[in-house]
Amino acid sequence: MSFRNFKMVDYVVYGRGSLNQLDEILAPQRKGDAPMIFFVDQFFAGNNAFLSRLPLRGKDKVVLIDVTHEPKTTYVDALKDALKAEFGTVSGIVGIGGGSVMDMTKAVSLMMTNPGSSADYQGWDLVKLPGVYKAGIPTISGTGAEVSRTTVLTGPVRKLGMNSDYTPFDQIVLDPDLLKTVPVNQRFYTAMDCFIHCVESLTGTYLNAFSKAYGEKAQDLCEEIFLHRSDWDETSDEKLMMASYAGGMSIAYSQVGVAHAVSYGLSYLLGTKHGIGNCIVFDKLGEFYPEGVEKFKKMVALHNIEIPQGITKGLSDADFDKMIDVSYGLPPLWENALGKNWKEQMPKERLRALYEQF
Ligand code: NAD
Ligand code: ZN
């Protein structure tokens, strides 16, 4: 048996206001007059009070990232081409935003040095060269993208990450102050991504004590803020930020499961976003995750969250087949959830029946 020898984020700073340390953090990473590029979530467009806090020097540039859709390989390639055309090379990329911006930052950083299209690298360990320096500053918490070794991209034929040892950030800045503007529903959907990661990891066949330690902590933090109280304060943001971090660490040594495998199909066909898609799916997974789903339903009710229904109504057989194909294209997730004989347990008819419930 061989154990995964995984690469982690190199540097982590945590604390309210830690964004103010960005200038000194970036200084040693600057290479001559090559600029630092700041990928900023479009939510902050026009917010000068916020943008003026970014330590822009010399040719540094802010690029607003459109997160209307989840990151596509075409968008990654276009941003990489534009940066190369304008600057040749850059000192690094700093991503400030949610999981979408985290993933765009990781992917473009890698594509600044690796030849071809990002679609060529969707898979496991296909990336051959380190990218340019990359830092991640989350402004919404739950995905764990700030610590993971993947960057989830929708490509011409698949929705799959660039999983590699070169993918994790060189630096992350965890500043809970940045979460305060996230709308209630969005906060819940993205936070539930973390909760669902934990349930899937803790009940999975890949679990070990490393993964369990982080997964249990992350799940406890989620329950403290969503299951045991209905209000929200600053400490809730602090806990949620650490839940996301610990949830991501848990996945490093395990895998997600049924909710993710199934929601990837919805996302590929219908463009359903990751957090809300996981919620739509998890809501109907009582037979796979009885305890987790019961808690989930309580949290939904306590926080008055709306989970969309009927989104697969009226889809064609070909549409269902496409979603089933995308979902079957993720064997490690199914194997983690159901064991080696997962295909026998999840024949096409059963998966189709599940998709028809959403
Ligand atoms: P997101 O990045 O798509 O952002 C959701 C919304 O929140 C956007 O409208 C954004 O503008 C807004 N927003 C962000 N910060 C805000 C703030 N501080 N105040 C107000 N609004 C704010 O959402 P997400 O759930 O964080 O990320 C989802 C993405 O993460 C998906 O693309 C998914 O595939 C990816 N993901 C990646 C990994 C990984 O390991 N790489 C893991 C899970 C999910
Ligand atoms: Zn997820």
The total tally of domains equals 2
CATH superfamily of the largest domain: Dehydroquinate synthase-like - alpha domain
Q: In CATH terms, what is the architecture of the largest domain?
A: Up-down Bundle
The general outline is: globular
Class from secondary-structure proportions: alpha/beta
Name the CATH class of the largest domain: Mainly Alpha
Rg measurement, Å: 20 Å
How do the helices and strands line up, and which of them pair or pack?
Layout: E1 11-14, H1 22-26, E2 36-41, H2 48-51, E3 61-65, H3 73-87, E4 92-97, H4 99-111, E5 123-124, E6 133-138, E7 152-154, E8 159-163, E9 171-174, H5 184-202, H6 209-226, H7 234-252, H8 258-270, H9 274-282, H10 290-302, H11 317-328, H12 331-338, H13 342-345, H14 348-356
Helix pairs in contact: 3-4, 5-6, 5-7, 5-9, 6-7, 8-9, 8-11, 11-14
Describe this entry's structure for a reader.
The structure is a single chain. Helix 2 (48-51) links the parallel strand 2 (36-41) and strand 3. Strands 1-9-6-4-2-3 form a 6-stranded parallel β-sheet, covered by helices on one side. Strands 5-8-7 form a 3-stranded mixed β-sheet. Helix 3 (73-87) packs across helix 4 (99-111), helix 5 runs antiparallel to helix 6 (209-226) and helix 8 crosses helix 9 (274-282). 50% of the residues are buried. The chain has 2 domains: 11-179, Rossmann fold, CATH 3.40.50.1970; 184-356, Dehydroquinate synthase-like, alpha domain, CATH 1.20.1090.10. The longest helix has 19 residues, at 184-202. The chain is of the alpha/beta class and 358 residues long. Helix content is 45%, strand content 11%. The chain is globular, with a radius of gyration of 20 Å. The chain starts with 10 loop residues before the first strand and ends with a helix.
